[in-house]
Design brief:
27% of the residues lie in helices and 25% in strands. It has 390 residues and is an alpha/beta fold. 45% of the residues are buried. Belongs to the CapA family.
């Protein structure tokens, strides 16, 4: 949603004067003229109209392995920059995320110090410039609850959140204090308050520090419901739940996912669920009048050569929320964009529909699009109104 500085300044000026009378120029009396019968008019600047629809874009795992770190370092050098530059890899995504009213991301691993170490399996960390790239790409808020949240302990959590704060990205799912953890991630989008919550199924056996269970969120239905209700009490009209869950490399959602989705979407305080973790695309499903995206896949990834090709797949849905009654919003349109992480000649994200239209060489993009569409539709999403963007 991040716009140019000029646009932001214009909005700020409008907001500052919204609904405020601008004082008329003082008239100096002229002894030779009669006083005006009608007082000078007072000019008003109208407040921005409250929207009736909002667009929310969500993306899958920003999951960085050493090979991807090396590419980001090479891209930075080529641009005459220090450190790491992930913006070239993410470039095809940027128009979509910047145009949305709200763009949601997922930081899979802790962010390291500028000098590293930048590590891969089984303990992960990514360069801090990943936060810069996420902000530059147009993301507004990110989930940080994953099975790798505690890979570098409390220091890693703090460093990650400090870097997200540094670039102006909101975050949820891990915290630096009990007070922070108890404060729902609620923010305004075009005057409408929205909340994002985030929970994970595991920390890969790493215990949370003694006396600090608030440092990162484990999936607990009652706690999720309580936080969603607290977000409503704080004024949120839309509540989005990010869930790190499921069985890795399995395109079908498992029973835990489907059961949780049905239970949580039955709660009036939760409007949408977006899922991460399994490293492949999973289906979308409409449950009642709400949606769940079980797994969005890996947005950023560079697994070893020979890994399953579908681990390079991802989807970026655009959910349109419509206010169906005062303060009540529902998803009324779901448009899904297919992406693919190309590994050669260098790692780059590819818009699959565009590559198919343009007959871009390097992969069978038409076949990749069909494969991703099949995964998205495993639970009847298209029949429920979802559209794949071609």
């Amino acid at each position: 949603m991040r716009k140019t500085l000029a646009v932001l300044l214009c909005l700020a000026l409008l907001t500052a004067t919204a609904g405020v009378a601008v004082a008329p120029v003082r008239q100096v009396p002229d002894p030779g003229r009669a006083a005006p019968a009608v007082p000078p008019s007072v000019a008003f600047v109208a407040a921005p109209a409250r929207p009736t629809t909002l667009s929310v874009v969500a993306a899958g795992d920003l999951f960085v392995q050493p090979a991807l770190t090396a590419q980001a370092a090479a891209d930075a050098r080529a641009a005459g920059k220090d450190g790491h530059d992930f913006t070239q890899i993410l470039a095809p995504l940027t128009p979509l995320t910047r145009q949305a009213d709200l763009a949601v991301c997922h930081i899979e691993q802790p962010l390291a110090r500028p000098e590293g170490p930048f590590t891969g399996w089984p303990i992960f960390s990514a360069p801090p410039q990943l936060a810069d790239a996420a902000a530059d790409s147009g993301f507004d808020t990110c989930s940080t609850a994953s099975n790798h949240t505690l890979d570098y302990g409390e220091e890693g959590v703090r460093r990650t959140l400090d870097n997200l704060d540094r670039v102006g990205l909101r975050h949820t799912g891990s915290a630096r204090s009990a007070q922070d953890a108890a404060t729902p991630n609620v923010f305004k989008v075009r005057g409408v308050k929205i909340a994002q919550l985030a929970y994970t199924f595991s920390f890969n056996g790493i215990p949370r520090p003694a006396g600090k269970p608030w440092i990162a969120n484990l999936i607990d239905v009652q706690k999720i419901r309580a936080e969603a209700h607290a977000a409503r009490q704080a004024g949120a009209e839309i509540v989005i739940l990010s869930m790190h869950w499921g069985t890795e490399y399995q395109n079908e959602p498992d029973r835990g996912q489907t059961g949780l989705a049905a239970e949580l979407l039955a709660d009036p305080d939760i409007d949408l669920i977006i899922g991460m973790h399994v490293h492949v695309v999973q289906p979308f499903e409409k449950i009642g009048d709400k949606w769940v995206a079980y797994g969005l896949g890996n947005l950023l990834v560079r697994f070893a050569d020979g890994s399953r090709e579908n681990t390079q797949d991802s989807v970026v849905p655009r959910f349109t929320f419509t206010e169906v009654a005062p303060g009540t919003w529902r998803v009324t349109d779901v448009a899904v964009h297919a992406f693919f992480m190309r590994y050669y000649p260098q790692p780059r994200l590819v818009d699959v529909a565009a590559a198919t239209r343009n007959a871009t060489p390097g992969a069978d993009y038409a076949g990749i699009f069909r494969r991703i569409t099949g995964y998205v539709n495993l639970r009847g999403a298209e029949a429920a109104g979802l559209r794949m963007v071609r």
